[in-house]
Amino acid sequence: MIKTAFTTLLLVLLTATVCAEPVNIRGVRMWPAPDNTRLVFDVTADIEHSLFVLKNPDRLVIDLKNTRLDKPFVGLDLGPSLIRDIRSAPRNDSDLRVVLDLKGAVRPKSFALRPNNEYGHRLVIDLYDERGAAPSADTRAAPSAPAAANAPREIIIAIDPGHGGEDPGAIGPRGTREKEVTLAVAQRLRELVAREPGMRAVMVRDGDYFIPLRRRVEMAREHRADLFISIHADAFGDPRAHGASVYTLSHRGATSEHARLLADKENASDIIGGVSLDDKDDLLASVLLDLSLTGTMEASTDVAGRVLSGLGQVARLHRSRVEQAGFRVLKSPNVPSILVETAFISNPQEERKLRDPNHQYALARSVMDGVRSYFRQNPPPGTLLAVRQESRGQQHVIGRGDTLSGIARQYQVSLELLRSSNALRNDQLRVGDVLNIPRSSDG
To answer: What top-level class would CATH report for the domain 155-278+286-377?
Structure first.
């Protein structure tokens, strides 16, 4: 009796396995990055797979159990990727074999992702260039070359357009994707930094591809950046929410409920964009040390305030003060870091502005004004800007409430010398202008 029951159960299980519905591949997306290529298969359920590499020529073979392909792999622009061609064929009646003909040796990595708010089941294949191919000349990924001994260096601004690739970010009522807006503003900011004497921009992302949050932080540190700027476009359930904001890191709690919710949303980018579950992010353990953070957080707050003031000249502000929250992308212990929310993409009026190239440029210019103001008053030692200021004395960037007499008292110089050193016809000052401070009050 027991033997008969066991046999029946075994037959049922075998029948269920044989008759299991096949997994369908609905489509495929590809995201080429400077040093890797990501291939994403949209599938209807969890998928069992294995892969192996073949040489002469270089190929990657992906075997998919009980899988069907809905339509051929067509429409992919393989030009900028590590892949020459994609082909597939049935295998063992119910399985599917996919072969990637490669342009060179790669290190593959694969993992499955469960459905989220943006996508269904996915199989992710990441291909890392084994040749260590250098990125293009815009210094997107390679660390800065060390300067000659004692030679003054440029100030490095790392610009991070939020989201990208599998992670579109927030989506506006007209379908505007945050990842596209942030890249457009970031590229305009790069142009402005490039025009600034003594400064150089490094783009963390300069195309439509995904970069994990930890890697964004690492890239800023590898470039020895003096400032990290992450650019975003906020979203909220109420379309009336509006205004730009600037955030710095807090590891003691957010300064508002909105800041906390925003940080939670941005920190989820790794989940949406696709990060392997075995890629443990040590930033979750908060490696920040109070001793190293003190100066960095003070600098972050200072530059954030100046950027917020600049944004207020071209856009409405959501909050009139810099806010703080636990953004993982800001967690670099030795690089001052700020996160700029340019507007609410969920607001129809602000979405329309974010699509306007002129407004994108105005946003970038306002951020640049804040960056310039900060570094003119706080040039890092050993930089070209610091050397130039040492050669011509101190400088003072005019802030709100400044008066010429007050500045004279602050630097202990006479009003007459201050006027003559700056060729001033009267005592009227404009916020953002720079005054040269003479070395002494001796005539």
So the answer is: alpha beta
